[in-house]
């Protein structure tokens, strides 16, 4: 049904065969559909043929599932300040197993539905005007309270003491930043 490559418009014949991208289903010549990339979300066990555009998306998905998602689900420890309170609480923050909630456990327990999060601002230190390196040290999170339009804010700061793994907290913040950049637009970044 498809006489020409949908990318470069090369005509298919006995020598120039058509191939289907396993992700988008469009027809391409070998040159335009030569990447073989894993596609586990569509139940392909081995890497499969994909067009260049789909291969890039699949690689980003794989990186997300292999790196950021695991870090977020394992969690990290932060000093969490709710709203305008001036007393932070030491809490473990992680993404729930079903990936729908941000779960905070300490003396208190909070679950924030990810869909209710309106803004994420990563707090950094060490930035210099000349473009020097900065590192994530905390996060401001705004979210809606279910059944209301009220916005609440939480501040997360990485621990400085020996009982906390500061590197793990930094990795968790970096993963959260990557996830939010790829999802909804955020303010204040």
TrEMBL record:
Pfam hit, one: FYVE
GO MF annotations in UniProt: zinc ion binding
InterPro entries: FYVE-type_Zinc_Finger, ZFYVE21_C, ZFYVE21_C_sf, Znf_FYVE, Znf_FYVE-rel, Znf_FYVE_PHD, Znf_RING/FYVE/PHD
Keywords: Metal-binding, Zinc, Zinc-finger
FYVE-type domain ranges (all copies): 1-54
PANTHER family: ARRESTIN DOMAIN-CONTAINING PROTEIN D, ZINC FINGER FYVE DOMAIN-CONTAINING PROTEIN 21
Record protein name field: ZFY21 protein
Source organism of the structure: Turnix velox (Little buttonquail)
């Amino acid at each position: 049904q498809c006489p020409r490559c949908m990318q470069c418009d090369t005509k298919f014949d006995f020598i120039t065969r058509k191939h289907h991208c396993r992700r988008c289903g469009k027809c391409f010549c070998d040159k335009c559909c030569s990447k073989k990339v894993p596609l586990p979300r569509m139940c392909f066990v081995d890497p499969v043929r994909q067009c260049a555009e789909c291969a890039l998306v699949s690689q980003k998905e794989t990186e997300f599932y292999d790196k950021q998602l695991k870090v977020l689900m394992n969690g990290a420890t932060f000093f969490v300040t709710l709203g305008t309170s001036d007393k932070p609480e030491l809490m473990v923050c992680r993404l729930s197993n079903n990936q729908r909630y941000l779960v905070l456990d300490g003396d208190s327990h909070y679950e924030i539905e990810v869909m209710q999060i309106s803004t994420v601002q990563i707090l950094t230190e060490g930035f210099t005007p000349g473009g020097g390196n900065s590192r994530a040290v905390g996060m401001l999170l705004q979210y809606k309270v279910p059944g209301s339009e009220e916005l609440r804010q939480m501040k997360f700061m990485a621990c400085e003491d020996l009982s906390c793994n500061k590197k793990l907290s930094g990795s968790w913040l970096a993963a959260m930043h990557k996830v939010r950049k790829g999802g909804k637009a955020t303010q204040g970044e």
